[in-house]
Structure formats: C-alpha cells, structure tokens
Design brief:
Blueprint: H1 2-32, H2 53-75, H3 83-91, H4 95-110, H5 114-135, H6 138-149, H7 158-173, H8 180-209, E1 214-216, H9 227-239, E2 246-248, H10 252-261, H11 265-276, H12 288-304, H13 310-315, H14 323-354, H15 366-378, H16 382-385, H17 391-406, E3 409-413, E4 424-429, E5 435-442, E6 454-459, E7 462-464, E8 467-469, E9 472-476, H18 492-510, H19 529-538, H20 541-547, H21 559-567, H22 573-591, H23 601-612, H24 628-632, H25 641-659, H26 665-677, H27 684-692, H28 699-704
Parallel strand pairs: 5-9
Antiparallel strand pairs: 1-2, 3-4, 4-5, 6-9, 7-8
Length: 708
Amino acid sequence: MKKNILILVSMSIILVISCKNKTKNNSDNQKNNPFFSEYTTPFQVPPFDKIDTTHYMPAFIEGMKQEKTDIETIVNNTEAPTFDNTILPFDKAGKLLNKVKSVFFNINGCNTNEQIDKITRDIAPMLSQHRDEISMNAKLFERIKTVYDNRLNSKLDSQQIRVVEKYYSDFVRKGANLPKEKQEELKKINSELSTLVTGFREKLLAETNKNFKLVIEDKKDLDGLPQSVIDGAAENAKEFKLDGKWVFTIQTYSIWPFMQYSTKRELCEKLYRAYTMKGNNGNEFDTKETIAKIFKLRVEKAKLLGFGSFADYVIAENMAKTPQKVDEFLMKIWNAALPIAKNEVKEMQKIIDKEGGKFQLQAWDWWFYAEKLRKQKYDLDDNELKPYFVLENVRNGMFDVANKLYGITFTKLTNCPVYFEGVEVFEAKEADGKHIGILYLDYYPRTSKGSGAWCSSFQDAGWENGKKIDPIITICCNFTKPTANTPALLNFDEVTTMFHEFGHALHGLFAEGKYTRTTGAVPQDYVELPSQIMENWACDPAVIKSYAKHYKTGEVIPDALIKKIEKSSLFNQGFVTVEYVAASLLDLAFHNLSEPKDIDILAFEKQQMDKIGLIPEIAPRYRSTYFNHSVSGEYSAGYYVYMWAEVLDADAFNAFKQSGDLFNKDLASKFRKYCLQECGNDEGMTQYIKFRGQEPSIDPLLVRRGLK
C-alpha cells in the first residue's frame, strides 16, 4: 500500500514537472515565433529571414484558439446585440490567424517544399472545421440576425448597414439557417472539399514542374529556335544537372516559344501532348478521380443550401446574377469568334499546302503556323520585339503609367527581408510623399512555385483602433529568365501580364475602408476590371516608347515596329477567344450539374465541347484535369469573369480615349475613387456607374477583339 502511494506521489511530481516543462516550451516557442509578436521589420513586413516552417503550425493553432475566444466574447455578451458589440468585434476577430494565413498560403503558392506541403494537408481540414464552427454558431448568428433585423432603425450609416447585410448574407450562404443535422452534413462536405482541393493542387504542381521534361541532346533538334530560347533551355538543363544539353518543360515560359519556332513537328507534338495530358497520365499525379469527387460534393453543397446547382450558388453573388445570363453572354462571344477561328485554320492550311506539307493542321501545329501567318500578314517577328522588352524597363514603364494617372511613385527598398533571392520590394507613395503600401515583385519560375501569374497580399488594407493599416501586396509571375548572355527579355504577352497583375496590385494598394468585410471587396466578375484596364496602357504607342528600349543599344523601339504591333492586334483573335470561351463554358457546365453523381471527367468534357462545336485544332485553354481556376475554388463557376470584366475595362478605357487624353487626371481620379478605393462601398455596377455615368457597352470589347 505504501508502495502504491509512493508511486502515485512520484507520478504526480512527474506530471507537475511535465506540465511546467510543457508550459515553458510553449512559452519559449511563442517567444521565438515571429507570428506571436509585432513585426519589427521596416513597414512591418513579414520577417521572412526569421520565419521557419516550424513556426506555422503553432501559430495556426494559437490563431484559431484566439479567434474562438474572440467569438466567445461576442456570444457571451449579455447586452442586446448592436453594431458596436457584435458586428464590429466580429469584423476585427482572428487577427493572429489572418496574420499567419496571409504569409503561409502565399509561400505555399510561390516557394513551397515538402514540409509546407505537409502542413497544408494537415491544416486544410482543421481550418475548414474552424470556419464552419464559426459560421454555424447559432448564438453568434442570432446576434448578427438581430442587428440585421434592426439595421434600418439603429441610426447606422450606409457603410455600417452594408457591412451588416454582407455578414448576414455570408452566414446564410454558409449554412447558418440550416437545421443541425444538415449543418453537420455541410461541415463534412467542406472538410472533404478542402482536403481534395489541396490534393489536386499538389498533384498539378508535381505534374507541371517535375513529371515531364523534354531533353534535347542533338543540336539539330533545336532547328528554328531563336538563340535566346536555346540559351534559356541550356540554363534549364543546368538546373536539372544536365549540363551540355537543352531542357524544355511544360511551364508556359518554356513550352510556347518552342511551339512557336521549332521546325521539329514531332517534338512539338510530344510537348503539346505532355501539356494537355497534365493530370491525365494514370499515375500518382492523376487528377480525374479527385476532380470528379470535388464536382460531386459541390452539387451536394449547393443542394443543401437551397440552390439548384453550384453555379446558381456562386453567380447569385456576382454582377451576372444567374448562370443563364452568363451562358447567353458567352455564347454571344462564341458565335462571333468561332467563324473567325475557322478562317484562321484555312489560312494556315494554305501555308502548309504551299510549302508542300502533306498533312492537315493539328492542334500542336497552331503556334508554329500562326507565327508564319503573322510574318506573312504583318511582317512581324516576335524575335524583333523581345530585345526591346527588358523586364526592368517594362516594370519602370508600368510604374510611370501609375505616376501619370494617379501621381504615385515606387521606390525600391533594400532593407526589407524577402522569401527568395531576387524578389524585389518597393514602397508606394502618394505625390506628397505619404506612404501607401509595399509591393513585392517575384518574377521568375522555379520548381517550388505554381505556374501562371497572380497577385495577392501579405497584409490587406484596413482600419484598427482608429489607425489605418497599410497594405503589403505581392505579384508572382513566371517570366522568361535572364541567361548568361542576356537580361530577362519578355515577349509581348508577358509585358501585358505584368501590367495586368500590377492593376490588381493598385486595387490592393488603393482600397480603403473602416471595415474588413467591405474594404476592397467586389463581386467576382468585377475583380478583373482593375487588372485588365492596365493592359490598355501597356499597348499604347506612347507608353510602349517609354519602356521599350533595346537591351544592347538602348535604342527606343522604332515607330515601324509599333505600327506592326498595332496592325497585328487583331491577329489570332479567333483562337484566343475560342480557347478562352471554351474553357469558360466547360467550367460553367461542370458547375451547372444539378444532381450529385459520379461523372467521367473526360467524357463530360468531350460532350460539352462537341455540343458547342469546338474545332479539333483548338483545345480549351485549360482542359479539365489541370483547370486550376475551376477546380481549386477561386474561380469555380467563374472563369467567365475575365471576359465579363473585359466589357467593363474596354468601356472604361474608351472613356479615356473619348476624352482625348489617355492620362486624363479627372477620369483617373474618379476611377481610383469609385472603382478601386471605395469599390466595396456599394454593388459593383453601382460603383462603375459612379465612375462612368452609365452602364458599360459591349461594343468596345467586340471592336477591340475584331468580332464586330
């Protein structure tokens, strides 16, 4: 008996010591974890040089814990629900969690590794459960609903009323009105979706960056390629430890120049098939089963929430309002573009026949013969242009456009930590020197980075305790890298991409508001207006001359070349429009499914493309198995938004043209105020009309694309 007592005492002592050590370890972890204290870096940017992968999970766990405490404080308040004791504290809840999320998920996209991928898989269902616990918290929703019901009789201003209405709608759309058993179903669906989407992204990244490379050993197989493309392939080979060879990948910066210039038709086919078979190779990275589950679960989710389809659920919040309106809009563009694409096929087939080619044009031939057709029609060779588009000069050109429009400046900083060598940091300032925010620019591809180009933030603009929170914006691209012999030289598509993403950055930098929910917030089919309008200035002759200077001589691009660019602006528009609209209609079709059923992804894709009459020489811009926009969730049932927003941007830029001054200060000021700065103050169309004075016309878009 005494022995047992001694054992119990000993165990108690050990338990106390263990608890003390655990508390001490937690304290030490928090002390050394950059997320648990205010950043002491310049402008309080994330201290990337101090952040380690081991810091993320503890910060996520503590962040969720703190946000739960924030919610409990609101729920347990015994006073009657008001804007100040319910909506406002909810709007500012989760500060630490938002802090770590904004860093982690950006790094996951642009500089991931196995440890970060593992954390992503682990944290995704935890965050999904955490979000659901908040959005389906009955007591919290009851308080929000009370404020909502009394909003018009509570002496709230227009912005407070808007915030209340938005939060109420958010909760309803996330299942707050569902009975308990249906909420549990929804939680399960959300958790499964988060896990499946994470898995899809990982597979797609592996397929794009690791699973295929075209290794060329015989110099004859480089026939037709410009020296800059050959040099880039040699640099790729060195990265793969294949010195003395040439490597081409299915990254956009690598594949499309090869397709455009290579005379080796069989190699073009090999590359093209590798690109269009991403996620469809029956290996560990195959995405078909994952995608089918995602689309099925989305139908179940929409049905639970009272919608006929997931497209109905998504588009109800957009400017378009209904999938039917989107379909009508897309088919109007489709019917105008398809005959033009068919004519482009005929023109290229004539070239093949004239050269004695004994074959019909195939999908993998398009880039090569389109380039020949462009030379024939416009005497324009892309290789003539690239020497004038030095990356740094293009960057300075877009900064100059922002200066002329809005009076702002960008100053390069060298004292801010970066997450990868070569990333640049700039401070944005008003004309009077007032600080606006910070901009990170990450230009080049790497195996740890996702494909494409995007703009995000490490910190959104906002307001807290009477103090403005300044934004920290980041742009990530996959541009052609410099070689040992040349600086980074961009093709014209990459030039417009840089301006495009910079437009998103300006949206993030200019957005202002007192409330997190509405600051900078716009409908999904409005999101691309700020970005796409900037592409118009990138193409303006006067602007081109400001940044297009030959990398060897410094010579400004000749007027003759600019004229060729202008004349060729309608070139290949049939192809460009058809491949985009085909992908948009495919995305819409997947999300228009009204019953949760298992579908054959490839069979469904073929059925939909046959239905609209897509010609075999053109594939959708993204096939189902690698359609990240559609599958990952950010543009699900919303890939159409680029074209929808193009109606807005074409109409908006037309206002500048009609004024006779592309840098019209009055129009720029109104665009900044209503469409960027205060864009979350009202519905998207309302804000646009405040700028334009009228609803947008589709005619400028049709004219610009040569469809009218």
